[in-house]
Amino acid sequence: MMEQIYMNKLDTSTEIDIKRSTFISYIARTETEDDAKEFIDTIKEKHRDATHNCSAYIIGENALIQRADDDGEPQGTAGIPILEVLKREELYNTTVVVTRYFGGIKLGAGGLIRAYSSGAAEAVKASGKVYLVPMIPATVLLDYTFTSRFEYFLEQENIEIRNQQYTDKVSYDLIIPEEKVESVESELQKITSDTFTMTTSEVEMAERTLV
Q1: pLDDT at residue 45 above 70?
Q2: Is residue 33 part of a domain?
Q3: Does residue 175 contact residue 136 with C-beta atoms inside 8 Å?
Q4: Mean pLDDT within 108-113
Q5: Helical H runs in the chain?
Q6: Are residues 119 and 162 in the same domain?
Q7: Are residues 105 and 138 both part of a single domain?
Q8: Residues 57 and 121 grouped into a single domain
Q9: Same domain, yes or no, for 27 and 70?
Q10: What is the CATH number of the domain that holds 105?
């Protein structure tokens, strides 16, 4: 079974003020590194008058691509803190840009790290998180005699019926969580005395909101 994958739910922005500096944080779902770069460029164009537009992103299911940019802030005080928030939240395919308008008061290295971390964390909080669940499309064919028991089982297991067709037998198009496929087959064997047919298709990824 594949590792749990989290991504941001909404593309949104937040704003905080720290010692007269304004930090505007943007978060977006980015499926590829090109998407991430395009998003960063869009924010930089939007805030051409900003003092800094610092950013970080993680791309790929195994966090294969990780990038951070201080955009002129002291090295390690902006991009890396943003990236650390993404890593802590286990977010993949997500980009954050934190725009700073300098207010005249220097924050120091520690203050900058806290400010950019806070900005990124606020954006993640406002966006929310989703996780991806591997689902298996399946078609089940069985006799009418077994429909009541089978449908009761599906209801108890919260397995979605996408479609039903009635001919000489009953056909169910299902979408089954990957970890439940074996239990569905096992239950069908018990219910039908192994007189059913079940075919499966390639895995699909479904989003679920993290509560």
Answers
A1: yes
A2: yes
A3: yes
A4: 97
A5: 33-46, 79-88, 108-127, 147-156, 181-192
A6: no
A7: no
A8: yes
A9: yes
A10: 3.30.230.30
Ramachandran assignment for 117, one of left (phi > 0), alpha (psi -120 to 50 degrees), beta (any other):
alpha
Mean pLDDT along residues 160-184: 95
Give dist(CA 80, CA 23) in Å, integer: 16
pLDDT of residue 133: 87
Two structure tokens written together for 111: 């203050």
Q: In the sheet where 65-69 sits, what is the strand order?
A: 12-18, 21-29, 94-101, 52-59, 65-69
**pLDDT score at 1:** 44
Q: What is the rounded distance in angstroms from the CA atom of residue 179 to the CA atom of residue 88?
A: 26
Residue of 105, 189, 175 whose CA lies nearest to 136? 175
Q: Is the pLDDT of residue 64 over 90?
A: no
Tell me the two tokens of residue 115: 């400010």
CATH number at residue 188: 3.30.70.240
Average confidence (pLDDT) over 79-107: 96
**Mean per-residue pLDDT of the chain:** 94
Whether 210 is in a domain gets the answer: no
Domain that holds residue 149: 133-204
Give the max Cα distance, the chain. 79
| Structure tokens belonging to residue 172 | 């169910």
Residue type, 72: G
Note whether residue 209 is domain-resident: no
